[in-house]
Each structure stands twice: as structure tokens, then as C-alpha cells.
Amino acid sequence: MEKVSADSFAELRPPARILLGPGPSNVHPRVMKAMLSPVLGHLDPDFVGVMEEIKKLLRIVFRTKNAITFPVSGTGSAGMEAALANLVEDGDEIVVGVAGAFGARIVDAAERQGARVHKVEAEWGRIIEPDRIAEALKAAKKPKLVAVVHAETSTGVHQPLEEISRLAHRAGALMVADAVTSLGCVPVEIDKWEIDACYSCTQKGIGAPPGLAPVTFSERAMDAVHKRKSKCRSWYLDLAMIEHYWGPERLYHHTAPITMNYALYEALRIVVEEGLEARWKRHRANAAALQAGLAAMGLEMAAEEGHRLPQLAAVLVPKGINDARVRDRLLKLFNMEVGAGLGPFKGKVWRIGLMGEGSRRENVMLVLNALEDILGAMGMEIARGRALAAADQAYVSLGLGAGEPRD
Amino acid sequence: MEKVSADSFAELRPPARILLGPGPSNVHPRVMKAMLSPVLGHLDPDFVGVMEEIKKLLRIVFRTKNAITFPVSGTGSAGMEAALANLVEDGDEIVVGVAGAFGARIVDAAERQGARVHKVEAEWGRIIEPDRIAEALKAAKKPKLVAVVHAETSTGVHQPLEEISRLAHRAGALMVADAVTSLGCVPVEIDKWEIDACYSCTQKGIGAPPGLAPVTFSERAMDAVHKRKSKCRSWYLDLAMIEHYWGPERLYHHTAPITMNYALYEALRIVVEEGLEARWKRHRANAAALQAGLAAMGLEMAAEEGHRLPQLAAVLVPKGINDARVRDRLLKLFNMEVGAGLGPFKGKVWRIGLMGEGSRRENVMLVLNALEDILGAMGMEIARGRALAAADQAYVSLGLGAGEPRD
To answer: How many interface pairs between A and B have CB atoms less than 8 angstroms apart?
Structure first.
């Protein structure tokens, strides 16, 4: 046993940071308050009522009529695993787009489920071209599904899905989309784009703490689940069982994370109150201002133009600047988190998120001003105030006003 | 799209129930308060500090020095899956004790991972006899592990583990224990009993909401993980990766449920402040009083004598009494949850939990008094007040005083 007494453990005092990384993003106080609701049993009629409301809200946010729409009891990656573990069987051929860490993660997770993966790779920072998916579909034998990341969190790329979905269906394959960093920030049109399986998280565009993975599965996807030759390898994520817990039968499967479901409910209520279109517009406006400001500082983006996510800017670290040092300064001077690069982008990009609650005009100003100060102090030639003026100008050209005067 | 407007979704108003089922149990206000702590990034140095403290606290509660001791980012069943998915490979022979729903769940989950399971079955309500495990180990070819449920939540049986662990090791197998309903209620002696892998939950003996699965793995178990011929089928639960996120390298794997980790931290702090021995004693005392009261009402237990869990009484529903009607009355008249029976015990037992925060003298009085009232009104011959007097007497004989006078 370690020699530690009860006194060694202090009361929690985590700082209230400005979260401008790739998620978690800041949480609305109403969501915090919802988490104080009394814990109920997982089969309590009152909790069952909350579950029903969550399903309705998720259908609104996913823009779908899919019956099987609910939060998986784990974080975003558990949603990914739920999609793959349920739809892939040993030997199934699948096509996966890989242009970043999260595409690569799908490959790894699918291979563990026995998939033979046809990878369609693109350079980090670029989209997956539909033509390349079409080629891979031709090369694959009876392709079971195509999986693509909608918002590649490692590169800031916004991947178009509609054309790829058409190609997948034409080849008789299911369309799977990773919407972990897109749901609640940009349009995710499950029914219109005919996405068969989609997974997301709670801590980015939705604005709750991390802990659940909203998912939705089309009838076609559920058919594939019901026609499996083998049981799903995962007991915990087996949709053939979970559908009867989240469905009208209310068959006990596992104990849902009650409090996180309260948080998700309240966060979704806020999303629906704002309205999806208004929310997407807000994300676009703040992104335009941020990107204008970053450009005014001479900073460049990792993602190709025309395919940049509004909720996540992957910014190239300028030559001679130490990535980690800047993030450390942001945290210690300004109590502000921005994300580091992953994999080949380690040390080479910062990831600035303006997601959900965090997509706010003041956050654009705060992060630009902080970067001006830090990069200037580190020797970059920064004309103080220019980034903020450029951001202001972006808001003006979007008809959103000049904001408060800076003098 | 469903036609629902933002106004259709009301503010959450779940009732504050007295939770006396098989979990979730009631949560201390300090734990609720901890969940209001600001959400941090999953790699934030301040959150990393909390992770380190949680590992220390869990080692105290699991009574272990195991380095790999942390909460899996899912509920209790995700802990089970983590143990099996990491320790089982295709074709491995394993021995599983089955005398209830949760033993059966292990079999199902392990077979999905490719295990050949030698089941050691016992009647529901009885323990698994070590002799029978010994026989199964002999019959198995190179048995990889033995898995047994420590607290069988479906029957209220308290399964002894030490002898089975010795047998497992003598046969060269790992010892796996399901402590979902035991941790924080009764002794779970990982190092002393040489348990190689153990999983639990947060919402029973620990006293936090559901959402995480504390687990611990011995060096021997981690050796098996590192020597796997194939990758763990689960990306989300792969210990070979997760150990580097929860370990000193802090390699990003997935986003931990930050808020639930705050809750777990505070709940564990409360456990350690009370002291494990005091906590076990409290559970035993309240169980003795409850069982004395139930016996005084003529109610019988499903679990064999000498092997009854203090934290969970599986009570046989008396002849002529409608199980569901009684639970419905308890909920509606007294705002009190008790659990229903599972599987073959459906309609045949109630499961009364006195777990963690919920193991309190007033809860014993509340549930006995409520049952006296309801069962009496349903036509059972109940001498009003006798159950409470018997409970009081049990406290007296434990040296805990007669309690408040009832007249």
C-alpha cells in the first residue's frame, strides 16, 4: 500500500480556463447546473423520460428521422468503436479516407474488428477527393462501408461528404461519418446526405463536458447489424442489445451515465434554442474574424483554402518559434488553452478551437491579442493591434458591426 | 425531421429519490459540488494532477500497489470489457463462474473476444465452490484466466475469492474479479488475494454518479497484455495504449470524461476520509439491521446464509404478492427505489441496496417501514413496528445503541 493519508488529498481547485483547443470547449452554466440534478436509477420512469427527450433532441441536431439515435456511454472514440464494431465483421472489405490522425484511427479500430481496409490517403491538410474513393470502391470486393472524417481535428480540414456518400451507396456500401468535431458547429445532414452511421461527442460543438458519444444509425445500417453472421465483438457497444435499452422495451443492458445525460440534455436544449442555422452562422462569422486576424499576423493555415473548418483552425507554427513555449505562455499568462499538433504535425501547428459556447467574438479578440503579445515578445515582427483590426473588419464585412471601439 | 420546437423541451426536474436499488446509490453533496469544477483539457497540467491523485486514491481503495490502476472511460460493464478484451485472445481457454446474471455476462463478453469458456455453474443464490473451479481448470487446456463475480448483484451472493485465486495461479492462470458491486462496501484485497485484474464502477460503493469503471491490473496481467499475439480488438479499451495516457508519458489516446473524474476524485476522498475499515463496518451493521427487520416480517433471502452481501439484499417476493406493484408503491408513495429481479429472478426477488452513501440507519428504517405499510395493505399479516424493533435490536447487539425511541 502507498503511505498516503486522507489529508494528503486536497479539495479540487481546477482553474477556469478559456478553452480554445480542439475540445473540450467551455460549458454553459446552465449545463453545469443541470448536472446537479439528482441521480436517478437507469430504469427510473423519470430517467426514461429524459432518455426519450435526448433522442428527440439528437434527431433534430443530426437532422435525421433515424430511430436509433442516442448517446453511447463513452467519449467520442467509443462512438467510433460502436460504429465499426457493429458494422464490420471479420474479412469485410471497407474503404477509409485518411488525411489526418482521426482517419488513421478509424483504420486501426476497423482492422481490430477484422476489416480489410482500402486506405484512401491524402496529404495532411487536404481533403479526400471523391474520385479516389470511387477507385478504392472499385478495387474492393463487396465493400461493406466507406468511412470518412467530416471534420479532421488534426488538420482543420472540412471534408465534403455528400458526393462520397453517393459513391458508397452506388457501390452497395454503407456511409460512415466521423462528426466528432463537426456536430453543432457546421451542418451535419444525416438524412439529406444519406449517412448510414455517424458518431460525435459532447464536448465540442454541443457544449457539454466529455463523457458521451451521440450516434445515429440508419435503417440500412441497422439491417446490417441485425444480419451479422457473428456477434458484435463488443458486449458494451453491441447495438443489437443497446437498441432495446434505449428503445421502448427498456431492457436493462448497462447503467447509463445519468449525470452526463442530464448535461447532454441541457446542452442540446441550448443548441435547439439558438437554432442550428444561427449556430452554424455564428461559427462561420467568428472563424472568418479569427482567420482574418491570423492572416494579418502573417500566420498560415494547415488546411487547404476552401476546406477550412470554422470551429478549428490548424495554424502553422512560424519558423523559429517554439510551439510548446507559446502554448505554455498562453496557459500561464492568459489562462488560455490552445491545442498542440498531432503526429506529423507535432510541433508544427497550433489548433485553435472556437467551438460551441467557445465560438464568441470576445474569444477571437482574446486569442489574437494574446498571440500578438507572445509572438511579438518572442521576436516576430508583429504590428500591434493589426490582427484585432482585421478581425473587426471581418465582422463589419459580414454585417455584424465594428464592435466596441479599441481606443 | 420531427416537428419539435425548442419550447417542447422543459427544464430538467428529476425527483430526488431515496435510491435503495442495486445502484446508482445516492451521491454526497460534496461530490455534486465537485462536478461544478471548471472543465479542463484532457492534457491540461492541472487535470493531469487530478489523474495522478485519482490513481493514488484508487490504489488505496483497491488495496494494491498496481501501477495500472485508473478509471476506464465508461460504466462498470466497460470495465468488464476492458479486462476481457485485453486478457483474452482468440482460442484462449478460460474458466468463468456463473451463478447469476453478471457471471453470465462475463461468459458472453469473453466469448465475443474469442474465448473458449469452461463454465462453472451454480444455482442462483449459491456461491461458486472452489472445488468446481479446480475441476474446470484441470479440464481446460492452458487456462488463461479464471473470472468470478465478487458481489453477484443479481442474487446478493458474496463470493469468496482467495481460494479460487490460489487455484487459478497454481494452474498458471490469471485471476479476474468483478468488483462492480463490492468496491467500497466490503473488503476487496487485490494484493493480498493476488487478483490480477479487477473492475468496478463509481455509482455503488464509491458514491459518485455512474460514468467510470475503476480498474486495476497486476504486473502479471500487464505482461499478458504486452505479450499478446494480436492487437486488442477494442481500440477504445486497449490497455497497451491507455497505459501511456494514464502513465507518465501522457500520450493522447481519448478525451477522458473530465467532470466524472472530478466526481470520482471527491467520492474517493470521502471514502478515504471515512476509512475503509469503518466503511465496511458501517455496511455490515446496516445490513444486519435490515436483514433482521426483513426476517421479522417473514421475508426470506435469495442468497445462501453465510454468503450474503451486506450492501445488497436479494429478498424473495412472498407468495401472492405482485413484485412490480410493490416497487411501484415504494416509488410513488415513498419516492424510494428498490431493484427488480433479473433473468430467472424476474418477479421473484426485490433487490434492496444499502451502498456507499446509502448505507445509513435512517434508510434501514425508511425501507422497513415502507415495506410494512405496503405489504400490510396488500393483505400480508404484518405486525406493524416489529421489523423496526428487530432492526433496532440488531443495532443494540452490535453495540451501536437503541437509536431514537419510537414512541
So the answer is: 274
Rounded Cα distance between B401 and B396, Å, is 5
End-to-end CA distance of chain A: 61
What mean pLDDT comes out for the span B174-181?
A: 98
Q: How far apart are CA B394 and CA B287, in angstroms?
A: 10
β-partners of residue A215 are: A70, A199
Q: Do B1 and A60 touch (CB under 8 A)?
A: yes
Q: Put residue A347 in one of left, alpha, beta given phi > 0 → left and psi -120 to 50 → alpha.
A: left
Q: Is the pLDDT of residue A62 over 90?
A: yes
pLDDT value of residue B278: 98
Question: With 80 as the cut, is the pLDDT of residue B391 above it?
Answer: yes
Bridge-based pairing of strands B349-353 and B93-98 is unpaired
Domains and CATH numbers, chain A: 29-272 (3.40.640.10), 275-397 (3.90.1150.10)
Distance between CA atoms of residues B211 and A211, nearest Å: 8
DSSP A344: G
- A143 at B interface, C-beta within 8 A: no
Give, as one character, the DSSP assignment of residue B11. Answer: P
Q: Give me the residue from A8, A17, A77 closest to B40, CB to CB.
A: A17
Q: Are A146 and A94 in contact (CB under 8 A)?
A: yes
Tell me the pLDDT tens digit for each residue of A294-338: 999 999 999 999 999 999 999 999 999 999 999 999 999 999 999
Residues in B touching A65 (Cβ below 8 Å) = 1-2
Picking from B38, B57, B337, the nearest residue to A41 by CB comes out as B337
Predicted pLDDT at B3: 55
To the nearest 10°, the Cα dihedral for A134, A139, A144, A148? -40
Cβ-based contacts of B47 with chain A (< 8 Å): 14
* A175: β partners: A146
Ramachandran category for residue A162: left, alpha or beta (phi over 0 → left; psi -120 to 50 → alpha):
alpha
Rg (CA), chain B: 22
CA closest to B46 among chain A residues: A14
pLDDT per position as a tens digit, B46-80: 999 999 999 999 999 999 999 999 999 999 999 99
Nearest-10 crossing angle of helices A101-112, A76-87 = 40
In A, residues 198-237, which contact B (CB 8 Å cutoff)? 201, 203, 209-211, 231-236
Whether B14 and A73 lie within 8 Å, measured CB to CB = no
Residues 83-122 of A with CB under 8 A from B: 85, 105, 108-109, 111-113
Number of Cβ atoms within 10 Å of the Cβ of B398: 14
Residues of A in contact with B210 (CB under 8 A): 39, 42, 255-259
